[in-house]
Amino acid sequence: MAAANDQPAKQADQMSEHILLDEPTTSDLRGKVTDAWNEFARALAGVLPSLPEGAYVELTLDPTAAGVGEAVYSVTISVKEDGHVLAFAVSNAQLPEGYRMDRAAVAEMVALGWSPPGVVEGSGGQFGLRTNTPGASRLATTVARTLRDIYGAPHPAFVVYLVHDSEDEPIDAPPLGTARHEPSIGDIERAELDLEEALISGKDGDPLAGFELEDQVKMVISSMTKISVEQLQVDADGDIGIRAGSAMVFVRVRDNPPLVDVFSPILTEIEPSEQLYVKLSELTNRMPIGRLYCANDTVWASIPVFGRNFQATHLMLAVQVMTGLADELDDRLHGEFGGKRFFGEGDKPPVKEPEDHRTGMYL
């Protein structure tokens, strides 16, 4: 990805050396996922006591993102009178054949504190749990473990949530970690207004001039994902997470040198081999921008966007390429070389594709 004006070759080479010294492999991937779930549980525990009577929190595993077909795994929490809280979780009665829980999973639901379907008043065919606002922390932990361990949500970013009243009117609530708020028309309009304001406020012909690089990046990603800047999924490392089917793409802003790194851990726990390195080299040569490489036991895809003379269109192209690339390659490379997709827990084994299958438009 070139900067807006040409850089001397020597300066470009020096910048490349700096980039190579700070790879995203320094991230603890398993730690990032664990931290994200802990953050989600803490946020949910903090939100529940603040909600008014009659409020509902709906949490749903995105079936498209998680690859669970027509199955809808969800948990609904409702705030009742006198601080009582009811939670209902989907059981096999609501799940299509092929996606139902086995006996061990049902037993684990009960062990987590859920009552079997029909036991708690109003639960019908769902698992039920009754508590009160002082028990919000324990309930939040139970819900997080249910989504992660039973329903197979690989990361809170695959959970879509909505907070509303009994009339289905939205209720303003703090973000639930990196879970995705179901965007309303108002959210989309705010995202568009944020970028429009940036464009109007630009100086010297640069539509985002006058804003810090981090703010520029957030406004661009907000516009692309159609949510407000405040609702972007930003983890403890400051990385913005973007769902990409079965993969996750991160956008990281670096200060020295000014750089926006768009990267994705395609596969983890992989055994490096000569065949793997050859494959990654061949794929990299066919990529319009960016590269694929293996470091330690992880295959990475990375597209750097220079922060000097930052251009929004450069970042938009990098994100578009990376989201398509990551979602396609994690399946294909896993089928050929094994290892784990970054969000591989609960995934079904990939189907071997015909040898004449061609990678999509990104390669």
Automatic annotation (TrEMBL):
Coiled coil: none annotated. Residues 35-159 form the TY-Chap N-terminal domain. Residues 1-24, 344-363 are annotated as: Disordered. Residues 213-344 form the TY-Chap central domain. This is YbjN domain-containing protein. It comes from Catenuloplanes niger.
